[in-house]
Design goal:
Blueprint: H1 12-22, H2 33-43, H3 49-59, H4 62-69, H5 79-94, H6 97-100, H7 103-106, H8 109-115, H9 125-142, H10 147-153, H11 156-166, H12 171-210, H13 215-222, H14 234-248, H15 254-271, H16 280-301, H17 310-327, H18 337-359, H19 369-382, H20 390-409, H21 411-425, H22 439-450, H23 454-462, H24 465-479, H25 491-510, H26 512-517, H27 519-535, H28 542-558, H29 569-583, E1 586-589, E2 598-601, H30 603-606, H31 609-626, H32 633-639, H33 642-652, H34 660-676, H35 678-686, H36 689-695, H37 699-706
Antiparallel strand pairs: 1-2
Helix pairs in contact: 2-5, 4-5, 5-9, 8-9, 9-10, 9-12, 10-12, 11-12, 12-13, 12-14, 13-15, 14-15, 15-17, 16-17, 16-18, 17-18, 17-19, 18-19, 18-20, 19-21, 19-22, 20-23, 22-25, 24-25, 24-27, 25-28, 27-28, 27-29, 28-29, 28-31, 31-34, 34-35, 34-37, 36-37
Length: about 700
């Protein structure tokens, strides 16, 4: 009933019935009609929030609590009817957001979750109504700030999965609520209910593989949300790839094709190429994916003024990046050589469109996620290919330096941009590993190649890239300092530091004047000197130590007149650490059936020598060049006993086991030390230096040691 002002109220008779029921007395099923009529009115939307609250004040939680937990129903009343009424009352209350977050509602989550999987007559209207009301309650709770966490802890995710897999009444509501919970708390959902969620993924993947109607396009949008943050089951990958192959191999409109491309991008981002089968069918499918992605990119970016579907283009970027990886893979690539050549040509045209787009980007757009995504794919291309599109790349370099500098100076916003890029292409959830959070790291590999070439290097220097790189290196180095937990750092930090070192090495060789005049390199040298002693002692960081040692030795030759290198504690510590790196690379190893040992790599060096050897030889050459420039260095090397131990090592192994390039490197160091210091010469003679030099045909060393 309504009063003249439009408010609903209970008649005195209904009030008496309700009072009897809420008091705990259930003398007759007829008394249930009073609250049932109230809930029907609420569902029909016939009352306002104020009246709904008055109903709650009259009924409270005591009565629905008893209805939900009672084990004995009155004669003639099925027990599930009482539970249905209890859920209906809760659903009525939960339409008020404040009540949906009430502890008395939250503690019903486990009970409500069990109702989703309780079997019964599917045609029973009361049971169906109870299921609808249960979903209404759980959905209302999910909409509160802390609701998803309570639902996950209450076992709702598993119950929803089972309800969906059972395909009983309301299973579509279970799926919708699962989607919402995964969007709100993906990690927690997978942690609490991984087996059940994987079962749902298997079901969805199988449905996707079999679908012949429009539902397959809907599944394309749904499936990315259910991909786990860890390994995707192989049977799911097979079904997903087969379904995508059928979709993308057909003639489609954009609304049909785009969700499929986004699903493929999500799989590429999470699994690389592992989800694509080997053989002819897999290579054709991958080529098709990359082709479609490149076409979409060109269509979107080449025409100025066209509205860009940024989420679709970003997904295509992920597929292009997969194509780049496969085209540059030497072993176990899915692609044959002719396919690689064709795809590189197609991707070159798409990258040209990306460059064209970036050339139009003004300062007001530099913080947009799509610009970040576009710089990322360009960085991935430049990491492998800089010879093509050289003119266009050089024209874009000033923008790239300014862009990287802007994001470096606003690092927190750059981090946020990487997250936005990740979500832009895929779904409301964060996919797999996060993309690197700064533009500079994306560009480092390409810049490493470009600093070898005169034209691009001059542009980078003119735009201030070396100074920016020094600042970036010092900032990233702070993350690896003793005060930080390096175990939680992503590998990309150390890889970025190594790539910076390679760029600096290129500049040392090709632009030595820049190293001497730019103050940022003096700061860099100081950091290298203070950091190397601790770095060479750390397990698993030998490759980074090699980069730091070699770069520092080469820079020391150019900055030899700097006060910091005149025998200061920092300089002595650095060269002692550099000697440690250079001297521990090889050992004498006994061979079965032979009286003489052979020269062999040390265990720590052996596994990474392919990446290390060029740095080691360059470091030996740089150390040799430092000896005549720093008078204190030869006596320091003598105190370290490196020349003596080196001659001892050579004397203990077969000369035939020492490669000519090793002989040349060792002789270079020994000759310069002998020339620079009389005590060094005497120590070498005492270590049978002349005899060893003769055995290895080190004529320069033999002559030097024969002199007084």
């Amino acid at each position: 009933m309504r009063d003249p002002r439009g408010h609903t109220y209970l008649s005195p008779g209904r009030r008496k019935e309700l009072d009897e029921v809420t008091s705990g007395r259930l003398p007759n099923p007829r008394h249930i009609l009073a609250p049932l009529q109230v809930t029907k009115a609420v569902k029909a939307g016939d009352i306002d929030a104020k009246t709904r609250r008055r109903i709650f004040d009259a009924v409270g939680f005591t009565f629905p609590n008893r209805l939900l937990t009672t084990k004995e129903a009155p004669d003639g009343c099925p027990d599930h009817v009482l539970r249905a009424l209890g859920v209906a009352l809760l659903a009525c209350f939960c339409s008020d957001p404040e009540l949906a977050a009430h502890p008395q509602v939250l503690n019903k989550i486990p009970i409500l979750s069990t109702f989703l999987t309780t079997r019964g007559d599917p045609d029973d209207a009361a049971r169906r109504s109870m299921i609808d009301d249960t979903y209404q309650c759980l959905t209302a709770v999910a909409g509160t700030p802390r609701g998803p966490r309570h639902l996950i802890a209450g076992g709702t995710v598993s119950a929803l999965c089972q309800a969906y897999l059972g395909h009983g009444y309301g299973f579509d509501q279970a799926l919708a609520l699962l989607v919402g919970l995964l969007a709100a708390a993906e990690t927690q959902c997978w942690k609490e209910a991984e087996p059940d969620l994987l079962a749902v993924l298997r079901g969805l993947s199988e449905d996707f593989q079999k679908a012949e109607d429009a539902s397959k396009f809907e599944l394309c949008q749904l499936l990315p949300i259910f991909l786990p943050p860890t390994t995707v089951p192989s049977e799911c990958l097979r079904d997903l790839q087969a379904g995508l192959a059928r979709i993308l191999g057909s003639k489609l409109s954009s609304w049909q094709r785009n969700p499929a491309l986004k699903l493929a991008a999500r799989l590429a981002h999470a699994c690389g190429s592992d989800w694509i089968p080997a053989g002819s069918s897999g290579s054709k499918f991958l080529a098709l994916l990359v082709n479609l992605a490149c076409v979409e990119v060109r269509l979107a970016l080449e025409e100025t003024g066209t509205e860009v579907k940024e989420d679709v283009v970003t997904a295509c970027y992920a597929l292009m990046e997969l194509g780049i990886q496969e085209c540059t893979r030497c072993e176990q690539s899915l692609l044959k050589e002719p396919q690689k050549v064709q795809l590189v040509s197609i991707m070159k045209e798409a990258i040209g469109a990306v460059i064209h787009y970036l050339q139009q980007v003004g300062p007001e757009k530099q913080k947009e996620p799509f610009v970040f995504a576009s710089v990322r794919i360009l960085g991935a291309w430049l990491a492998e290919e800089t010879s093509s599109l050289r003119k266009e790349v050089c024209q874009l370099l000033p923008f790239l330096v300014r862009y990287a500098k802007t994001l470096y100076e606003e690092a927190e916003e750059a981090n946020d941009l990487s997250q936005q890029v990740a979500t832009l292409a895929i779904s409301p959830t964060t996919p797999g590993p996060t993309w690197p959070g700064d533009a500079l790291r994306l560009l480092l590999p390409g810049w490493c190649h470009l600093t070898v070439e005169d034209g691009p290097r001059e542009i980078l220097i003119k735009e201030g890239a070396p100074s920016l790189l020094c600042k970036y290196f010092l900032q990233q180095w702070e993350l690896t300092s003793p005060g930080h937990d390096t175990s939680v750092l992503p590998d990309s930090v150390e890889i970025g530091l190594q790539t910076c070192c390679h760029i600096f090495l290129n500049l040392v060789v090709t632009a030595p004047g820049l190293i001497k005049r730019d103050a940022c390199f003096t700061s860099l040298m100081n950091t290298l000197m203070t950091s190397l002693p601790a770095l060479v002692q750390q397990q698993g960081r030998l490759l980074l130590a090699a980069n730091v040692a070699t770069l520092g030795l080469l820079m020391a030759r150019l900055l030899s007149t700097s006060p910091a290198l005149q025998g200061t504690p920092a300089s002595r510590g650095f060269f002692a650490a550099a000697i440690l790196f250079l001297s521990q690379s090889h050992v004498a190893r006994a061979t079965p059936g032979s009286d003489q040992a052979v020269l062999a790599l040390s265990p720590d060096y052996e596994g990474i020598w392919a990446d290390l050897q060029e740095l080691w030889f360059l470091g030996m050459q740089a150390f040799t060049g430092c000896v005549p420039l720093l008078p204190w260095l030869a006596p320091a090397a003598l105190r370290s006993r490196w020349p003596q131990e080196l001659l001892q090592l050579l004397g203990s192994v077969s000369p035939n086991s020492v490669k000519p390039e090793m002989v040349a490197a060792y002789q270079g160091v020994l000759v310069e030390l002998a020339r620079a210091n009389r005590l060094c010469r005497e120590a070498m003679r005492l270590q049978a230096g002349e005899e060893t030099a003769s055995h290895y045909r080190m004529a320069a060393l033999e002559q030097c040691l024969s002199e007084p």
